[in-house]
Each structure stands twice: as structure tokens, then as C-alpha cells.
Amino acid sequence: MSKGHRDTGNYVGFTGSYAAGGVFSLKSAQLLKSAGAWGGLPGNGLQLHLDASTYPGSGTLWSDQSGNARHFSWTSTPSFTTGTVPYFNMNGYGANGPASNSYGINNTSGYTIFVAFYNNSLTYNGAFKFVGSPSRGIFSHLPWISGTIYLDQGGCCSVNQRVEVAMSNSTGAWNVIAFRCNPATERSIWQNGTKLIANTNAAADINLTADAVRLNSDSEYGTAWDAKLSQFVVYNRALTDAEMGTATAFLKKKVGLT
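RE: above sequence
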């Protein structure tokens, strides 16, 4: 008998069986840490969950907790800090993951991306990039040196490509920033569960390629993002508002926000 973590109607968990006396025994290691204890990340469309708390403390592998084995590799031995909120120091460090076009994100699917981080200072940075052709696929300054968050899709910087908004508490505080794209309606930026802005103009084509997804390792901006990174989560669909709340609450707890 198989069981799984139940979250918003979707199983994202593990397999196992009941032994005599009704004791449930796990048969695999797919009990997802991303699922949490009944009420974590929604499972439908979850493609990637990088969680700093799962890092073993050495090596260049950052293991994906979504169950999809989309592991990332640091380009050099990372700077990692353990404690109440484990995190990677991103300033001077980058990581690369599987092909940008391997996540099931395309011009009609939409996407949702969450980043839980703490900016030490504002820099000229490229925090993450899903590579597209001939230009930026999905790309973010998080935020730019001006304190403005930019999300670029399919290039830069027309109203069909860019969403931008000023970020409050842009340094010296943990934040959960989310980017949601529903190609039929809007592209939006969220901070700690609040929608800051929505762009309802038609979205530019993404056209993702087989190039690796990049965390702070884009050739244009190098490894200049001066941030502590705890969580990076990717969906290949636009979450509902209710799901945005569920996921944000889970990630806020990860970084000590209430």
C-alpha cells in the first residue's frame, strides 16, 4: 500500500507499507523535506527545491529535495554557514543546475519561482537565470543596486519582457520573494506573501535552451550577488493565490519569519 504526503490534493512524498499492528514502514528515501509536516510546499508542478539545511557541510553538490533529482553543483567549494537558518554565502560563489529547458517550463505553462535570501548589500547582480534564445529566458536582479527587483522574461527591457518593483527591507533582513507567470493573465512579483506588482501585458516568449540554470554564475554579472541564500524553489505552472500563501508560509518558517 503506497502512501504520500498530501498537500492541496497532490501527493509529493514516499512509498511504503503497513506492517503488523498498523505500523507504517518507509520503503524509499523519497520523504521530501520540501513537503514538511503536513502543510509544506504544494506538490503539483514542483520541479526543484534547493534547501540549504540539507547540505552535508562539504562538497560541491547541492541536492534537489523535490524528488526530481535536479541537483545543482557549486562552481567552487561553497561558503556555508550552519545554525538556526543555514545558508550559503553567495558573494563570490555560483552554482549551476540541469538544462534550462528540462523543467517543463515553456511559453504556455507558466511558472512560479521562490527565493528565500538575506541581502548583505546591494550590488549589480544576476541572481538566477534560466537561459533562453536568443536572449534572457527567465532572469532576475534580486534586487539591483538601486533596490529595485527586476524580472526579465524573453529579453530586456520592454513591457512584454520586464516586471519591476522597489523592494522594502532590501538589506539586513530575510525575505521570501516570489515570481509568478500566468501567460494568460499576468506576471507578478511577491514579497513575503504580498503581491507587490502585476504586469498584464502579453508576455514575451521564453524559448529556454539546454544551457544550465545559473545561480549567481551568469557570465554577464559574475558572482556579485552579496546575499545569504537559504531556499530556491521552482514550479512549472502558476500557483493559485492560496498555494502562494501555503508555500510562502512554509519558506518563511525556514528563515525564521512569522
